[in-house]
Design goal:
Blueprint lengths: L12 H16 L4 H8 L3 H10 L17
Helix pairs in contact: 1-3, 2-3
Length: 70
């Protein structure tokens, strides 16, 4: 995904499937939705929707968690 997508352009069909596959691979390797949005020039919501459509199990929001005491 060398070039960013133009904001507001529709992404459909095979192009959307290709984009979803690429975004899924990058998200599964650890990139955040915000990082993917910045890299593609699209909104957080667009990336979130594409990942959801692709069947990706989204990570939690993070932050401090309470674990077992050592």
């Amino acid at each position: 995904m060398a070039e960013t997508l133009k904001k507001g352009t529709r992404v459909t069909g095979a192009e959307r499937d290709k984009l979803a596959t690429e975004l899924k691979r990058r998200y599964d390797s650890g990139e955040s939705i915000r990082a993917l949005a910045a890299a593609t020039g699209r909104s957080y919501g667009f990336i979130h929707r594409i990942l959801t459509e692709a069947g990706v199990n989204l990570r939690g929001r993070g932050g401090a968690t309470r674990g077992k005491r050592a």
